[in-house]
Write a structure and sequence with these properties.
Elements (H helix, E strand, L loop, with lengths): L6 H14 L6 H4 L1 H39 L5 H11 L5 H10 L1 H11 L1
Helix pairs in contact: 1-3, 3-5, 5-6
Length: 114
């Protein structure tokens, strides 16, 4: 009985990896064994990056809120505490957007919390 190697499936598997490696430099884009390792590493970084993105955005929002409330004589932690005491449930993304794009309404919010 002849040996069956299923060339269609193995070629498709290699082609999928090499397509993902498109745009890489040197052997990384056209040598399967090198491309396979680099694509796998890239996919790992993209997974980790999706988690880091959330962390970095929250950090940015907190910095923007802090800059906005310090102009009004408060610190970030005091401001967040006073918001919680008053029962105002705005998340940090919205607060940072107010501080950047609507400073007058953000100042009014800070004054209402003081």
């Amino acid at each position: 009985m002849p040996r069956s190697v299923n060339a269609v499936a193995s070629r498709a598997r290699r082609k999928r990896i090499l397509d993902q490696a498109k745009g890489f430099y040197g052997k990384r884009k056209n040598v399967y064994t090198v491309a396979k390792n680099i694509v796998e590493k890239g996919l790992t970084y993209s997974y980790v990056g999706r988690k880091l993105k959330k962390r970095e955005y929250r950090q940015l929002w907190i910095a923007r809120i802090n800059a906005g409330v310090r102009e009004e004589g408060l610190t970030y932690s005091q401001f967040i505490h006073k918001l919680n005491v008053k029962g105002i449930t705005l998340d940090r993304k919205v607060l940072a957007d107010l501080a950047m794009n609507n400073p007058e309404s953000f100042k009014a919010l800070v004054q209402s919390v003081k």
